[in-house]
């Protein structure tokens, strides 16, 4: 299965899994290069959102936390000057891969660090979002950000 970075350990015990930090940082840098190219092409950073699901959510969060720009926002589906960037985290409560409390803990940690965070548990589905659910979430947030 394609992945943003490697995860080692027993998938049945999510808390024991070890992330490949070098691979994660490589993915973050790849996304930052895409953002930089868009800015050089004339797109305002405040019109750029980074969206990720599952491992991509970790990458999106890391991009948002370390970005040199004030981006429009970060959406995760499952640096101090960037605390003004809003984070929107969504998690399917019945996720059969990542327990719901992991999403809640992520949101709580970000809030405790002073970030603007909106966290919603969705109660329909499992780990994967249906296309119409993703479209609804993205449409709503893009309209809010880009209005």
TrEMBL record:
GO terms for molecular function: palmitoyl-(protein) hydrolase activity. InterPro entries: AB_hydrolase_fold (IPR029058), LYPA1-2/EST-like (IPR050565), PLipase/COase/thioEstase (IPR003140). It comes from the Eukaryota. It catalyses: S-hexadecanoyl-L-cysteinyl-[protein] + H2O = L-cysteinyl-[protein] + hexadecanoate + H(+). The keyword Hydrolase applies. Keywords: Hydrolase. Pfam families: Abhydrolase_2. This is Acyl-protein thioesterase 1. It comes from Funneliformis geosporum. Its EC number is 3.1.2.22. Belongs to the AB hydrolase superfamily. AB hydrolase 2 family. Hydrolyzes fatty acids from S-acylated cysteine residues in proteins with a strong preference for palmitoylated G-alpha proteins over other acyl substrates. Mediates the deacylation of G-alpha proteins such as GPA1 in vivo, but has weak or no activity toward palmitoylated Ras proteins. Has weak lysophospholipase activity in vitro; however such activity may not exist in vivo. Residues 1-138 form the Phospholipase/carboxylesterase/thioesterase domain.
């Amino acid at each position: 299965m394609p992945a943003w970075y490697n995860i080692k350990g027993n998938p049945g015990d999510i808390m024991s899994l070890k992330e490949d930090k070098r691979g994660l940082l490589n993915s973050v840098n790849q996304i930052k290069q895409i953002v930089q190219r868009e800015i050089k092409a004339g797109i305002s950073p405040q019109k750029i959102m980074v969206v990720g699901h599952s491992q991509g959510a970790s990458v999106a969060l890391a991009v948002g936390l370390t970005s040199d720009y004030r981006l429009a926002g970060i959406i995760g589906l499952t640096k101090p000057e960037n605390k003004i960037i809003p984070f929107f985290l969504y998690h399917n409560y019945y996720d059969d891969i990542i327990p719901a409390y992991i999403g809640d803990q992520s949101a709580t940690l970000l809030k405790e660090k002073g970030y603007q965070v909106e966290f919603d548990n969705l109660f329909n589905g499992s780990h994967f979002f249906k296309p119409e659910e993703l479209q609804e979430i993205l449409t709503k947030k893009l309209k809010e950000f880009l209005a």
